């Protein structure tokens, strides 16, 4: 890390500290170093070691995101964070990160630009039956033990994220066959006897309930006085489920998935720009949906 970048990064760390906890005292405690060694790092006279950068990044992920989101040449750095989960504890960690991000997005009045080849991730977080199903599907547990219920606190966390998502203004592009694809997937699971017909009906009813909320939001032309909600239907889509959160101060964060239960989050301005360009291109050949949702609705 160069002299300027190190100082800049530590300033973002400092902004995350309690008001009565100075940066040099924090570094002394965090790294168990002397006062002079702490000041040397703050002034850029001594480079942060790689393990120190890693430790600070893990402790202050938002500071790192803001650092790389600065509108300088730093935007060429490809900062990415991947998440994956194979059990409920790892799912909790992933969801907790998403909650923190969307809490900040709501406070800052960020705007979400999102594309959905399948049902948007947020809708699976709205209902316990949907999350139980999707977790079993994501982790392939459905092949061995079917659908098992997640803990109530995990479900509450998921629902909190869904509610935060609904408090964010968003523009979304949905695949023309998004609903059909999801129905077909559930039916295949039932045909293979991985879930029961009763479970399949329960899942489909939950989808219908969430989708009815979408219709109401579109009919109302938003989700509140200052929360807009626009959905476009694409005749085809080259974009998978994913999106970009754009903050008023210029910060942008990309979120996507590259395989089942493996997600990526990136502050790389190159990644963000490419997504926004692809989004606008796809939006240009899409049509905006109204309260009827056209042919997407059942």
Brief write-up:
This protein is of the alpha+beta class. It is built from 12 helices and 8 strands.
**What is the ordering of alpha helices and beta strands?**
HHHHHEHEHHHEHHEEEEHE
Write down the domain tally. Answer: 2
CATH topology of the largest domain: Endonuclease, Chain A
Average of per-residue pLDDT values: 85
Q: From the helix content, strand content and strand pairing, which structural class follows?
A: alpha+beta
How far the N terminus sits from the C terminus, by CA atoms, comes to 55 Å
Unreliable segments of 5+ consecutive residues: 73-78, 294-298
- What percentage of the residues does DSSP assign to strands (E)? 5-15%
Number of strands: 8
CATH top level class name of the largest domain: Alpha Beta
Please give the CATH architecture of the largest domain. 2-Layer Sandwich
For the biggest β-sheet, the strand order reads 1-7-6-5-2-3-4-8
Rg value: 22 Å
**Largest sheet features:** 8 strands, mixed
Contiguous helical run count: 12
Question: What general outline do the C-alpha atoms trace?
Answer: globular
Overall helicity: 40-55%
């Amino acid at each position: 890390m160069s002299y300027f970048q190190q100082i800049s990064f530590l300033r973002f760390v400092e902004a995350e500290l309690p008001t009565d906890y100075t940066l040099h005292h924090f570094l002394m405690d965090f790294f168990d170093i002397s006062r002079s060694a702490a000041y040397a790092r703050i002034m850029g006279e001594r480079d942060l070691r790689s393990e120190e950068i890693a430790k600070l990044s893990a402790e202050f992920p938002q500071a790192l995101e803001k650092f790389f989101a600065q509108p300088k040449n730093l935007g060429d750095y490809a900062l990415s964070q991947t998440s994956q989960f194979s059990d409920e504890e790892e799912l909790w960690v992933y969801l907790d990160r998403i909650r923190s991000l969307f809490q900040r997005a709501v406070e800052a009045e960020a705007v979400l630009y999102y594309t959905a080849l399948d049902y948007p991730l947020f809708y699976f977080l709205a209902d316990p039956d949907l999350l139980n199903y999707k977790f079993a599907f994501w982790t392939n547990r459905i092949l061995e033990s079917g659908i098992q219920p997640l803990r109530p606190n995990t479900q509450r966390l998921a629902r909190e994220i869904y509610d935060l998502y609904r408090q964010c203004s968003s523009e979304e592009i949905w695949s023309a066959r998004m609903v059909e694809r999801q129905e077909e997937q559930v039916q295949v699971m039932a045909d293979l006897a991985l879930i029961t017909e009763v479970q399949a009906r329960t899942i489909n009813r939950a989808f219908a309930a969430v989708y009815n909320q979408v219709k109401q939001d579109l009919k109302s032309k938003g989700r509140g006085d200052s929360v807009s909600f626009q959905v476009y239907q694409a005749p085809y889509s080259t974009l998978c489920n994913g999106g970009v959160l754009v903050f008023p101060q210029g910060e942008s964060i990309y979120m996507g998935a590259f395989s089942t239960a493996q997600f990526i989050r990136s502050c790389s301005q190159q990644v963000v720009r490419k997504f926004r360009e692809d989004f606008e291109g796809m939006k240009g050949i899409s049509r905006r949906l109204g309260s009827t949702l056209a042919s997407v609705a059942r």
